[in-house]
Specification:
Layout (H helix, E strand, L loop, with lengths): L9 E5 L4 E4 H18 L8 E6 L3 H15 L5 E8 L6 H15 L3 E5 H5 L3 H11 L5 H19 L4 E3 L4 H14 L2 H4 L5 E2 L10 E2 L7 H11 L15 H15 L3 H20 L5 E2 L6 E2 L5 H12 L1
Parallel strand pairs: 3-4, 3-6, 4-5, 6-8
Antiparallel strand pairs: 1-2, 7-8, 9-10
Helix pairs in contact: 1-9, 2-9, 7-10, 7-11
The structure holds iron/sulfur cluster and zinc ion (ZN).
The site of iron/sulfur cluster (SF4) has 8 residues, from helix 6.
């Protein structure tokens, strides 16, 4: 097939719009949409020191590639990368190597924090301990809690004003539906392109520049750009509730093109109301680590205590 714009050989069909795209027009259109998300949502501001959370996967390296292009032209914005090593044997090493190579080549400062150094144990060990009591426990539950905290704390330590995360359109649609199914509207109120629930010095605002790009397009972008991307999947991935939600949404997208956009756009229209109604403004400090929480102990301190007692 031929590109609907220039007639060159097409590499991609944007089904939703009925458009064929050649390599040049495909890459241009992805980049243009990322820049638009940044502009429309005011994701980058004068004086920002931007931390970019990377894993070595397609999403995060694509995000870092584009952000470096955008921010690299501005003298008023600094950019650096953070990688969290959860300690997943046979998986994380590849991503880490790619991330290190990429940052070295691009001259981007990279900070690495690991579960082992910070919490005294790898994710693999947390899962082993957790499963002793409850065989149905999911690695992603632990991973999510500790990775979010460590990303935030590392960004904070490095003086970041914002933290960019590589959530693409599919991720955002999945989060929206997963929260909906669980009835977790407080968590829903924390979604969006610029996710900041409360203005709190201990929480670095999160931004999602890839939020309007479908996962498939991010993968193709990374491939066509020749980014050193790790396409392997986490061995715990199929355990996740999110994966079931992903399958349902992908199924719907296949039958009704535009489903993912529609889920996210409809949600965006409701978001201001959700924020008004479900924002938790009474965030206190964890009595152990001082981190932000609305309870006495934060979730990570509760889990760490449990792991240590059962080790
Ligand atoms: Fe962590 Fe689950 Fe993602 Fe694996 S699939 S990296 S365990 S959140
Ligand atoms: Zn704590």
């Amino acid at each position: 097939m031929k590109c609907s714009t220039c007639g060159e050989k097409a590499v991609y069909y944007r089904r939703f719009e009925g458009q064929w795209q050649c390599k040049r027009h495909f890459l241009r259109s992805v980049e243009k949409r990322i820049r638009k998300t940044i502009r429309v949502n005011g994701l980058l501001e004068h004086g920002d020191r931007l931390a970019v959370g990377i894993s070595g996967g397609k999403d995060s390296l694509t995000m870092l590639h584009v952000l470096k292009k955008v921010a690299g032209k501005r003298r008023d914005i600094e950019i650096f990368a953070i990688l969290i090593d959860e300690g997943i044997e046979g998986y994380r090493e590849h991503g880490r190597k790619n991330a290190e190579d990429f940052c070295k080549k691009e001259g981007i400062e990279l900070c690495i924090s690991s579960f082992r150094e910070e919490y005294g144990m790898d994710l693999d060990e947390m899962v082993r301990i957790g499963k002793k009591d409850d065989p149905t426990v999911r690695a992603c539950t632990y991973c999510g809690v500790f990775r979010r905290k460590l990303l935030n704390d590392t960004a904070l330590k490095q003086g970041a004003t914002k933290l960019a995360i590589g959530h693409n359109l599919d991720d955002e649609a999945q989060s929206i539906m997963a929260n909906h199914i669980r009835g977790d509207l407080i968590r829903s109120a924390r979604l969006g392109a610029k996710a900041m629930v409360v203005d709190d010095d201990r929480l670095v605002p999160r931004i999602k520049p890839l939020r309007d790009i479908p996962e498939k397009e991010v993968g193709l972008f990374a491939l066509l750009k020749g980014l050193p991307v790790d396409f392997s999947e986490c061995p715990y991935a199929d355990e996740s509730f999110r994966w079931s939600v992903r399958d349902v949404i992908n199924d719907l997208e296949e039958k009704y093109a535009g489903t993912k956009y529609s889920i996210v756009r409809t949600f965006d229209n409701m978001l201001p109301m959700l924020k008004e109604r479900f924002t938790d403004s009474t965030i206190g400090a964890c009595s152990r680590c001082g981190g932000a929480t609305s309870k006495d102990l934060c979730k990570s301190c509760i889990l760490l205590e449990m792991f240590k007692s059962k080790r």
